[in-house]
Amino acid sequence: MNRNHLPLNALRAFEASARHLSFTRAGLELHVTQAAVSHQVKALEARLGVVLFRRLPRGLALTDEGLALLPTLRDAFERIGDVLERFEGGRVLEVLSVGVVGTFAVGWLLPRLPAFREAHGFVDLRIFTNNNRIDIAGEGLDCAIRFGDGAWHGTEAVELCAAPMTPLCSPALAERLAAGPTTLGREVLLRSYRAEDWPDWFAAAGLPSPPIRGPVFDSSWVMVEAAIQGAGVALAPAGMFARDLEQGRLVRPFDLAVDTGRYWLTWLKSRPMTPALAAFRDWVMGAVGNPPLQGAI
Predict the structure, then answer these.
(1) Where are the beta strands (DSSP E) in 186-233?
(2) Domains, the chain, ranges and CATH?
(3) 155-159, 198-202, 292-296: least confidently modelled range
(4) Number of neighbouring beta carbons within 10 Å of residue 239
(5) What is the pLDDT of residues 2-14, one digit of tens each?
């Protein structure tokens, strides 16, 4: 078959008829008559030299040839539809898949997404949250915002902001800590997978670290929610939980914070810099300081 003269109308008629197993319902979907659909399918069968449907008294049944053709056509039309949906204002939307550590996503990125959309409407942004353990290439991401020291093999990394860790807890629990940091040893200390965080904080406070036996969480966001519900004291970046602090759901009992890492925007060195990635990089780098994150930079 000459690929330059594909019978697209006939293929569309076949695909719709195969989904509905009815020429009549296919015609309603395509806004043509039942006879027109039947004619298109017959023309396609003649061109291919195969029978695609068995005509039954109460509808249609796909032949083996029809069953073989349908998945490919369905996938092709869906992909065409996906691309066409990305056109907006005469410009194709560029998909950008961004992995974001959950705490940063909820505490900083989500409230600012409307501003990004307004400034860069050509970017079709896809957000994938994670617990900071991420494989950019393996997960098909264009870039990732993560917490750490900025040293990840094979990646470019630009610093976004610091995120010093400080104890956070419920108002009721905070009352039991009024005597000072030494009282923390009597409380449940909630932990992240970064085992050194609490010992580093106690060292900065000039105190020996008590045994840390509280539950371990793979997300600071979930850990702080547990603290809000009274499960213990979390050690997390206060700037990512400004709304909870302002609303009084969360309390910062001590001023001391320890810098254990920073948030970074990262992408593979082997990845070309696309317009969408460049737009997101420039926007997020500018937005982290406008206004600055409270208590985080």
Answers:
(1) 191-192, 216-217
(2) 3-85 (1.10.10.10), 91-163+261-287 (3.40.190.10), 165-247 (3.40.190.10)
(3) 292-296
(4) 23
(5) 555 778 899 999 9
pTM (2 d.p.): 0.69
> Tokens 């291919």 belong to which residue?
48
Q: What distance lies between CA 244 and its chain's CA centroid?
A: 23
Give, to the nearest 10 degrees, the angle between helix 8-20 and helix 64-85: 110
Segment holding 135, helix H or strand E: none
User: Reduced to 3 states, what is the DSSP secondary structure of residue 161?
Assistant: strand
**Could you tell me whether strands 123-130 and 216-217 are parallel, antiparallel, or unpaired per DSSP bridges?**
unpaired
∠13-17-20 over CA atoms, to 5°? 145
Q: Two tokens at 3?
A: 């690929």
Do 117 and 73 form a contact (C-beta atoms < 8 A)? no
Q: Give pairs for 216-221: CB < 8 Å, separation 24+.
A: 216/191, 216/192, 217/190, 217/191, 217/192, 217/193, 218/131, 218/192, 218/193, 219/102, 219/103, 219/131, 220/102, 220/103, 220/192, 221/102, 221/103, 221/106, 221/107
H or E, element range at 118 = helix 110-119
Residue 244, strand partner residues: none
